[in-house]
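Dear colleagues,

As part of the handover before I leave the project, I'm documenting each prediction I ran so the next person doesn't have to rerun anything. This entry is a single chain, and its sequence is reproduced below.
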Amino acid sequence: MRLEKKKLDSSINQSYFKQNLKYKDIELFRKTFLLLIEKIDTNESEEHNKNNISDFLKDTFYKNKYEINTAGRKDLVIHKGKTNKTAVSVIIETKKPNIKGRATLPEMISFKSPNTKALHETIHYYLKERILKNNTEIKHIIISNVFEWYIFDASEFEKYFYLNKQFKIKYEQWNAGQLAGKTTEWFYNEIAKPYIDKDIENLQCNYINLNDYIEIVNDTNKTDNKKLINLYKIFSPEHLLKLPFANDYNKIDIKFYKELLYILGLQEIKTEKGKKIITREKQIKSGTILEDTINVLKVKKKINNIEQLEIYGKNEKEQLFSIALELIITWLNRILFLKLLEGQLIRYHKDNTEYSFINSKNIEYFEELDELFFEVLAIKSENRTASVNKRYGNLPYLNSSLFEQTELEKQTLQISDLKNRLTISIQKDSILKIKEPKGINTLKYLLDFLSAYNFSSDRKAEIQNDDKTIINAAVLGLIFEKINGYKDGSYFTPSFITTYISSTTLKKTIVQKFNESYKKQFENFTQLKGFIDYTDQKERSKANEIINSIKICDPAVGSGHFLVSVLNELIAIKSELKILQDTNKNRIRGIEIKNINDELDIINYETSEPFQYYVNDAGVPPPEIQNLQETLFYEKQTLIENCIFGVDINQKSVSICRLRLWIELLKNTFYTKETGYKLLETLPNIDINIKQGDTLISFFDFNGSQLKNGQLKKLHKFTKEYKIQVELYKNTKNGNAKKQITDKIESLKEEFINFANPHDKEFIEFKKKEAKLTEQFIFFSQEEKKQWVKEHEKLKIEVENEREILEEKKRNIYRDAFEWRFEFPEILSDNGDFEGFDIVVGNPPY
């Protein structure tokens, strides 16, 4: 057997790997590290040095949080909780150090001699916990002589020692005294040692030698502080105990979430049935954004302008709350997107805070937010006014419908209609840590609150002087999911589940696609990997085309969580197949891309450093960095435009899903060569693939194969024209042109309805009545004819009245209760059949 050394950065949970550390924590680590080295005495016993290890771990990380002590014959263990009554999570076997701090003593494990007593002892202690105590909480096993640390993930021991039936049975027999030898030495030499030599090829571990870090720790200038980050994290409870942390993609940041709700004027409550729902704050605070919005809607009677008001609630109170909440979500979407953009710009320019623009120093009034939305982000720099460009000259034009007025805003109010003078009291446990007895301006509170967090999350870890917690796009998505599900409670699928589902589903679908294209029978993804010749540009491009042809639809899209997972998984799969290529069709080399917790983890093979886009001191990105960033941007754009579709009955969900996809593109936006690396690439129009509608209700079949030749030719014409308009929409960056294309698309949708085949009961009855009007009769008397004319006139009136009602219903099919596939004519086959989707999440009825 041999020991296989794993890199530290590949062992740490990747979302934790990117998490910043606080300066004070690194300084404490430096202090306790030096104290440990100072205390090491090679002449002292194992017991003495075991205590030094215990003190080091306690003083740096674990004191008053997790119990560290001996346990039976085990040298040290770390418990899951504060007392020894909680489960053992880490087993530590300590050995006496030698003078050089290298493993020359026979009992200590080493890469030259791994099959030694130290390993045998940890196997015994692990199996005793695992089998006899049924402890499933063990996370790591450590062997250390103070200088050297061999850290094994418990999954390695589970795989080789617990799940091997023969070895497990032998251990149980020995432990029960049923074998010839009963001592631990006999188990080590007669069972463990031969099994390891014969049946285990390699055992993975992290290896740390503290001697390698002594010079860094002693550096008074602290120039290499960053080199201590991974070392700190390996010893931390977040890693060794596999704990959740502030930036965990699967968990909400409760502190952020609750204070955000407080500022908005909302609260989360638990219903009698145990659901958590979001409601209006019971103790109404007049200064909150919700109450201000409701007041303006009410006083100015704005809700009277809204068509189909009933969809917002049964009475005025429900309607005011629902409309106000939709407006607030729209405004908050924009603000949080801009916070992420701000974090991106600061990171691109090496933490230069001059690129900070959305804070209470720059923005004092709601009108200024309105200006930022519609006069900056929505307007090309050359078309902005001189005063706007003077103030926001370094901000890009984004070409996103996120910064276009929504229909609801046009009918009701803008964020600029809110009152600037209102104040609210600061939440008791606010992150701002300030006291304002008379309250604080609401807008200032919101912006200061957001500025207290770090929105620049897609980066490698740094050491920060402040205490800012990272809020990433995944956490924001979870928060929006909860706010959006305010009536019924939210059901958020953790990222590790969506990642697994998207990976297995996509790989199976990709294998099927390649089988169809190459007339092969690949049994699995591994076989496919061995088949693709990624060195051949033609073959590589064909493989990309096959993957880009996949169509995925989520018919209850929510916040877009699954679509984000699918998007990143598709890129990770291309990387795994080694077919990822740039715009010149050159293969991207030297990097590994994985989809971890629905975020791309991009590591450089040579340096093991995570990828990060930036501009140098001359304001120009390095060529290889620029090329990879452009590749990722255009890959995401291609996949979003061609592969990903979503529907939701809730307009707020549609808005949030679009936001999530824009954020994914924002992560990889880049400075363009054409602008001298002064302006960022504008975002494409990706919103057209995310629609509003009820996918559980269908009044129409839509099948061109049932049409007559004349109608089929007409359908061909409309389908072709629709696809052309969709492509124009996706590629235009001109606001006026986009409006004209949108109008044309809506017009074509009206035409498509004429090809729908009704199967609704009302339509069927209507068609029968309509057909009856054309029936011919032979009358045998004047009385019969007179009766027929009377009934015919009555039927004619009924048909005309019903036609008007049902045609209106037909026109509004994709707003109220539409056949959801009808919303995607761009994926119709020429005969109108809907066979375009390869994957439909949840598989709703077609």
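DSSP finds 29 helices and 21 strands in the chain. The two ends are 56 Å apart (CA to CA).

All the best with the project,
I.
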